Amino acid sequence: MQVGANTRPCRVACGLVISEGHGDGWLRRRGFWLEYASIAWMIVEAATAITPGIIASSIALTGFGLDSVIELAAAVIVVWQHRGAGGHPIIAAVEAPRS
Do 69 and 46 meet the contact criterion of CB atoms below 8 Å apart? Predict the structure, then answer.
């Protein structure tokens, strides 16, 4: 992508170029939407793996479902930190204005 007159580089060194019309708020809302969709998917995935795994006494299927629960916990932590409740120093450093 080329940086033109109506675009600016992303604040974080991520290689994205955001047009001035969208701004950081749009990108943040889209990130939260994707994270919430991932959380919903992981809940369905865990429920559909753990329940039949227990019924069938399948260690592999139950383990797959528990792996989804671990991923779900990680996704919830990401949302928690990006909402500002965590006070995480790395997030604060990334969101700090540059001079």
Answer: yes
